[in-house]
Amino acid sequence: VNEMTPQMISDAAADLCAHGIKNGAIGNEPWLKDRYKRIRYQDMVDKPYEKVEELYKFVNKPVTEAVTNFVDTSMNGKKTSSDFNVIKDSKAVSDKWRNMEVDKIETIDKACSEFIQIYGYELFEV
Asked: Which residues, listed in sequence order, are joined to residue 76 by a DSSP beta bridge?
């Protein structure tokens, strides 16, 4: 992002957010009623045990000790070299964007305003 122009940032953000809107729309299909559960990454980071419990209840399965241990390790692990690894400090990864320059964050907010609204996120405030 550091080497990208504002227009490049806007275009990339708009593409990603449009893709997210399109993917999320499938959850509104009538045939998926009571068969689809949307969980945002941010919610998993903020309340991992609550969200895992909710997900397992949705599929009518008990949360086992092995699952709880996996959540402990994967959500609270030591920071690794890649944000795509399973074991990481998820809170640090989810907050990484806060270190960006304000004008870049505002560009992304503007390009993704529909996505932000649909998924219940809040616009960045200075």
From this structure: 89
DSSP 48-89: HHHHHHHHHHHTT-PPPHHHHHHHHHHHHPPP-S-TTSSSSB
What does 39-58 look like in DSSP terms, one character per residue? --HHHHHHSHHHHHHHHHHH
Residue with the two structure tokens 């992002």? 1
Query: Count of CB atoms within 10 A of residue 49's CB?
Result: 14
Instruction: Tell me which residue has tokens 């920071």.
Output: 79
Is the pLDDT confidence value at 124 over 90?
Answer: no
Are 110 and 123 in contact by the 8 Å Cβ rule? The answer is: no
- Is the confidence at residue 37, as pLDDT, over 70? yes
Taking CA atoms, 25 is separated from 21, 35, 65, 86, in Å, by 6, 14, 34, 27
pLDDT at 31 over 90: yes
Residue bearing the bigger pLDDT, 1 or 18: 18
The C-alpha R_g of the chain, in whole angstroms, comes to 17
d(CA 73, CA 39): 19
